[in-house]
């Protein structure tokens, strides 16, 4: 376990449309920079439906999937590749729990997001890869689709 934490990894971080619209991009970048991770790539773009579907293909069977695709394609996102030792797990800790109401203070979701309504898809400001393999996959996928 200790050995795997010492790997230099890459993670895919995406500021979701609510985060971009609310002007949280600078704050989010600042948190990753201050932690000591290295920014490798960054792009603002409107996520095409096909990329959103590919990105969230594992969630296709979920009841919230159609709303999730609508949410992610509803406005520009900022996609980033961040590099560092143990960056995948560390980024998930910096981001906090999926539900902003459950996310601890001090985390990005805990500090910067609330739930907007009981019937709303969870608008939680940011995405971070959940494994080193998915980090590579998601960074590569975005690089291939956007120039
Ligand atoms: P992410 O992949 O975006 O970092 O999020 P996660 O691992 O924390 O959560 P996941 O279960 O993979 O869900 C992906 C995104 O779908 C939205 N969601 N809404 N019941 C709901 O309203 C609901 N459940 C999931 C969130 O935006 C979540 O981040």
UniProtKB/TrEMBL annotation:
The record's GO molecular-function terms, alphabetically, read: ATP binding; nucleoside diphosphate kinase activity
Which residues of this protein are catalytic?
Answer: 127 (pros-phosphohistidine intermediate)
Q: What reaction is this protein's catalytic activity?
A: a 2'-deoxyribonucleoside 5'-diphosphate + ATP = a 2'-deoxyribonucleoside 5'-triphosphate + ADP; a ribonucleoside 5'-diphosphate + ATP = a ribonucleoside 5'-triphosphate + ADP
> What is the enzyme's main class?
transferase
Organism's domain of life?
Eukaryota
Q: What is its EC number?
A: 2.7.4.6
Q: Where does ATP bind?
A: 16, 64, 92, 98, 109, 124
Positions of the UniProt region annotated as Disordered = 128-147
Question: Which parts of the sequence belong to the Nucleoside diphosphate kinase-like domain?
Answer: 8-147
Kindly list the biological process annotations in GO that this record carries.
CTP biosynthetic process; GTP biosynthetic process; response to hydrogen peroxide; UTP biosynthetic process
Cofactor(s) the record lists: Mg(2+)
Q: Which family does it belong to?
A: Belongs to the NDK family.
Q: What is this protein called?
A: Nucleoside diphosphate kinase
Q: What species is this protein from?
A: Linum tenue
Shown chain mapped onto the complete sequence: 77 to 223 of 223
